[in-house]
Amino acid sequence: MNILYLLDLIGTAAFAASGAWVGVRKHMDLFGVLVLGVVTAVGGGTLRDLLLGDIPPFSLQDETYISIALAASLVVFANRRRFETFEKPLLYFDAIGLGTFLVIGTTKALEFQMGLLGAVLMGVMTGTAGGVLRDVLANQIPLILRREIYASACIAGGVLLVVLEQSGAGRTASALLAAGTVITVRLLAIRYEWGLPKS
Amino acid sequence: MNILYLLDLIGTAAFAASGAWVGVRKHMDLFGVLVLGVVTAVGGGTLRDLLLGDIPPFSLQDETYISIALAASLVVFANRRRFETFEKPLLYFDAIGLGTFLVIGTTKALEFQMGLLGAVLMGVMTGTAGGVLRDVLANQIPLILRREIYASACIAGGVLLVVLEQSGAGRTASALLAAGTVITVRLLAIRYEWGLPKS
Amino acid sequence: MNILYLLDLIGTAAFAASGAWVGVRKHMDLFGVLVLGVVTAVGGGTLRDLLLGDIPPFSLQDETYISIALAASLVVFANRRRFETFEKPLLYFDAIGLGTFLVIGTTKALEFQMGLLGAVLMGVMTGTAGGVLRDVLANQIPLILRREIYASACIAGGVLLVVLEQSGAGRTASALLAAGTVITVRLLAIRYEWGLPKS
After folding, report:
1. What confidence tier does C1 reach under pLDDT thresholds 50, 70, 90?
2. What percent of chain A is helix, strand and coil (3-state, nearest 5)?
3. Contact A94/A39 with Cβ under 8 angstroms?
4. Within a domain: residue A197?
């Protein structure tokens, strides 16, 4: 489980950095940048825990998450004049976070006796709701509702995970395959600019 | 209770369609349209359950709701070029949903020992919070905060329901009268363009 | 404790008035103005209670809060043409509310076994999340994410309170000192137009 925890923290830092960067671009002050970083990093998992009834949520039970999110946001704020150089590599860490959050959320929902649809939903929410909250606070239509294969990568991984668990595959293998699927689809989508049909 | 469940599902589909339609008009992709449909349909009741402490909320306990919301949103997305023809009839189903949601929410809050003010609030929230979340995600000021007798129809029905229950009227009769009031006021408001005093 | 309850109600009325005023300026109807008033007044504490697991939240357990928030919002709506004369004095009552909410939130989080970081966060959230929700509903970037020493006054008071409680100072003295710090910093910030570094 230690590798999953490590990936989780890496994803938390990457999500926080992306949130803090939106705060910088919206000309927020230091407090606003920190809030956007923390909300982006732990918002999805916190909402999941409220819905599953695991209260207080993970983010208040283990303060490592919020500490890392604050630190990552501070780093972004301090380096805000040369952040463009970090933007590209950050996408890779963000993809790692997306896959990890999906696996953690889906697995937890199954442990809490959710149905298969609910489990996939909770996994996707864990990966995406933080970014939605970030965009709502920044007063813009959430990016993932408009374009980019981001949630779709999550859904693919979540469905795969649920199918594998149902068919009796080992937990570790299922988790690795699902997370790998999310990360691969996400990176391919960035590379080839994939998108869903639009209105 | 079966008739109430049926009306609840009709309302869920109508609310989902209205949410999906906002997504289409905001040029969201398929995922965004589905999210707006589901959030509009189950957002109010889910928030109510979080506040009452009935966790996991109804939307995760009975996956019929989210399944129907997804199906209705898909239908809207697939017919998005000729949706205008559906807009008018949809208002009637939406009014049915509003009355049903109000009755379900108020009754549930009374069962959870809320006070009378709290019960009316929970009923109104069940009927309106999904639409508020929809508008927040679509980055517009929630429609019901600005105009239309929508929440007011809910409040009228909620107060009536609480008064009837307090005065010992039968549960079924009270529910029917309250839902009928909401639906009637709502449809009259559309017909005669009623509005509250504005700032 | 009675003085704390009184200050809490004063803060509730002041927060509701500020929320209702935003609703008026955004040309909302009466219902919208009431919603913004109530959400601003009880939103922060309600979110805190959901996260701590104290459900139903304070705002549904003691209906005094919502009643006062509704009354204050009605007063603002009725006097909306000459509200400018109230704006300046309202800032003082708002500062009292900020200090009181911070102390109540931080203390409650400590009682619920939160860590020190979590306790300060819950205190700051109690004081500020209502205003954030208000601005999200009014479709504007939350003011406290962009400027003004508002959250910072809260953080200073929260850290002071946690340090005092840890070092064994009396609960009443700690609460008074922390609330006084928030109020003083907030009023000085208004007077001298202090701000945090911006992006």
Report:
1. low
2. 80, 0, 20
3. no
4. no
Task: For chain B, give the mean pLDDT.
Answer: 93
Residue A28 within any structural domain of the chain: yes
The end-to-end CA distance of chain B, in Å, is 42
Task: Show the CA angle centred on residue A196, arms to residues A190 and A198, nearest 5°.
Answer: 125
Q: Is B29–A139 a contact, with Cβ atoms under 8 angstroms apart?
A: no
What is the CA A102 to chain-centroid distance, rounded? 7
Task: Give the domain extent around A160.
Answer: 2-192
SS3 C23: helix
- Mean pLDDT within B75-100: 89
Tell whether B193 is within 8 A of chain C (Cβ).
no
Res B131 pLDDT > 80:
yes
Number of domains in chain A: 1
Overall residue count recorded for chain A in this entry: 199
- Encode burial over B81-92: b for 16+ CB neighbours within 10 A, e otherwise: eebeeeeeebee
**Over C8-19, what HEC string results?**
HHHHHHHHHHHH
Rounded to two decimals, the ipTM of the complex is: 0.92
The tally of CA atoms less than 13 A away on the side-chain side of residue C167 is 9
Identify whether C199 is part of a domain. Answer: no
Nearest-Cα residue of chain C relative to residue A134: C141
Cα(A195)–Cα(A193) distance, rounded to whole angstroms?
7
Cβ of A29 and C197 within 8 Å? yes
pLDDT digits (tens, 9 = 90+) for A69-118: 999 999 999 999 888 888 888 889 999 999 999 999 999 999 999 999 99
Considering the domain boundaries, does residue C197 fall inside one? Answer: no
CA B15 – CA B135 distance, rounded (Å): 13
Stretch C44-70: mean pLDDT: 97
Are A57 and C50 within 8 A, CB to CB? no
Q: How far apart are CA C60 and CA C46, in angstroms?
A: 9
